[in-house]
Amino acid sequence: MTASLSSPVYPLVTSSRATPRVLSIAGSDPSGGAGIQADLKSIAAHGGYGMAAITALTAQNTMGVHAVHVPPVEFLRQQLDAISSDIDIDAVKIGMLGDAAVIDEVRRWLEEVRPAVVVLDPVMVATSGDRLLRESAEKALRSLLPLADLITPNLPELAMLLGEPEAPDWSSALDQGKRLAAECGNTVLVKGGHLAGSECPDALVNTSGLLRRDVVEIAGPRVETQNSHGTGCSLSSALATVQARTGDWEASLREVKPWLLQALMSSDALEVGQGSGPVHHFHHQQGLKPGAFAAALWNHATPELEAIYSLRFIQELQSGSLPEPWFNYYLAQDAIYLNGYSRVLARAGALAPTEEEQLFWAKASQQCLEVESELHRNWLGSRETSTVTGPVTKSYVDHLLASSASGSYAVVLAAILPCYWLYAEVGQQLHTAYVDAGAPADHAYADWLRTYSDEDFAEATRKAINFTDSAAVGASDGERDAMVEAFVQSCRYETAFFDAPRLFA
Ligand SMILES: Nc1ncnc2c1ncn2[C@@H]1O[C@H](COP(=O)(O)OP(=O)(O)OP(=O)(O)O)[C@@H](O)[C@H]1O
Ligand SMILES: Cc1ncc(CO)c(N)n1
Q1: Same domain as 296, residue 280
Q2: In a domain, 342, yes or no
């Protein structure tokens, strides 16, 4: 077989849309956790443009279904035609259908329109146990299965579609999945939501070679929550959306399952209803609370602080027994470091989003140079020191300069912060210990320890923490990860800096 260059038989890149247009054909849940309401949230959460043709109206909440109203089927057809006569549909998700007349109408429409991706969630019974499909319609539903690319039954639905008893365990559920896939000629998602135990696996099953293997299982933990209202709806519409983008069921499930896990884990925060509540579709867009990011950074810093306190340099600086060449090395390297640090503070000023922050960093940059000159004037002039940049000083300054080259204000601040925060913390600790020991005047490093109690520096540190925290609130997930990385590296260099005299003096 030859393929012409202009129209490849097997295109290497499948056509995919950045914002897939996804239609949910399903029932309405006015409490917002299941049905079309869940579908639209789920589609939007995955970057799709959501549309909805309503098959049935339910009166339900998190406790149960009070009533079901199925409007005339002609009106459903009018909704479907209104959409397909105007809009290209990239994927369809089918949920609650109600009765056989609705199923027949949807089948006729599907046969005419032939959407590229069809996910069928064979909704029969709500989480609360109430029926959402007439028993007499079960046969009609079976006839719809071959028109779907993916079927997503839960364990009772899987059994019903096969006319078998419900699978007692996961391996028999997978066998049932294989039988249904073979029968319908499409892919079945076997869902572990109804299993007992601490695991909640899902598996894609296709026996015709479409997948990497006949059964592609994706493991997952079970979340201890009663908030599972609408998990099936949310999962199937998310899969339809992501599939329109990836064209790969396994990749789609690998993207959607961790999202659903987080949505279940964050469900308590919604505080919706007294029964089986909804999942949090937009958990990933929750804004950070003020102070939360700084607190998380501090958790990263605490092991480093412990390491600092256990260093010989710090213990002997505190007791006064520190060898003088070590102290001299430390001071000389500090002067070199401050010169580089000053440049990075100036860069923070250049990137600052407000004038207040710009001024703060510009002043900090200037003060840093003043401290550097003071070190030379008052401390280094009379001591024997080398002006060669040590390896830790070089690496630390290079790390700061690289962070500032990222161009992200948030990342620069995260890299800058440990020098304030850890130094303020260690300085406070050393000064307090010195004062507690009666501030002995014959302590070899008394003059130096006294410099550590500086309220202006403590105040500047508080401001630096707050600016970093605010920058994180407005940052993207990726930028926040880079902030943590930059902060953690700087913390490590702080420790290494105090330990450098032992190694290099
Ligand atoms: N407690 C849980 N912890 C983790 N994942 C879960 C939990 N409950 C359900 N899931 C996941 O949710 C999805 C839906 O599974 P489930 O078997 O509950 O479907 P369903 O019964 O059709 O859902 P619905 O509750 O909407 O009727 C699956 O991916 C399943 O693994
Ligand atoms: C409308 C509707 N569709 C599906 C379900 C299944 O969760 C539900 N409870 N309500």
Answers
A1: no
A2: yes
Q: Which of 37, 227, 228, 233 to mutate to test the pocket of ligand 2 (most atoms within 8 A of CB)?
A: 233
- State CA 401 to chain mean position distance: 28
Q: Is 466 exposed, middle or buried (0-12, 13-18, 19+ CB in 10 A)?
A: middle
Of the given ranges (125-129, 153-157, 428-432), which has the lowest mean pLDDT? Answer: 125-129
The tens digit of pLDDT for each residue in 363-373 reads 999 999 998 88
pLDDT tens column, 254-300? 999 999 999 999 999 899 999 999 999 998 877 778 898 999 999 99
Q: How far is the CA of 123 from the centre of ligand 1 (A)?
A: 13
The answer to whether residue 301 sits within a structural domain is yes
CATH number at residue 389: 1.20.910.10
433 Cα: distance to centroid of ligand 1 (angstroms):
57
Q: Residues with Cβ < 8 Å from 69, sequence gap 6 or more?
A: 56, 57, 58, 59
In this structure, are 205 and 188 located in the same domain? yes
121 CA: nearest ligand 2 atom: 4
Tokens of 343: 């440049």
Among protein residues, the one whose CA lies closest to atom 4 of ligand 2:
35
- Nearest CA to 150 out of 183, 117, 191 is that of 117
Per-position DSSP letters for 304-345, written without gaps between them: HHHHHHTSHHHHHHHHT---HHHHHHHHHHHHHHHHHHHHHH
Quick one: how far is CA 164 from the chain centroid? 40
The Å distance, Cα 76 to ligand 1 centre, comes to 28
Bridge partners of 187, per DSSP, are 150
Identify whether residues 224 and 314 lie together within a single domain: no
Measured distance between the N- and C-terminal CA atoms of the chain, rounded to whole angstroms: 74
Residues in contact with ligand 1 by the CB-under-6-Å rule are 34, 127, 154, 191-194, 200, 202, 220, 222-223, 225, 228, 230-233, 235, 260-261, 264
User: Ligand 2: distance of its center to the CA of 157 in Å?
Assistant: 14
Q: How many separate domains does the chain show?
A: 2
Does residue 113 contact residue 137 with C-beta atoms inside 8 Å? Answer: no
**Cα(228) to centroid of ligand 1, in Å?**
6
Q: Which atom of ligand 1 is nearest to the CA of 225?
A: 1
Please say which residue of 284, 319, 340 terminates a domain. 284
ipTM attached to this prediction: 0.97
Instruction: Specify whether 335 is located in the same domain as 480.
Output: yes
One domain, residues 110 and 191: yes
Residue 213: domain span: 21-284
CATH number, domain at 203?
Answer: 3.40.1190.20
pTM over cut 0.90 = no
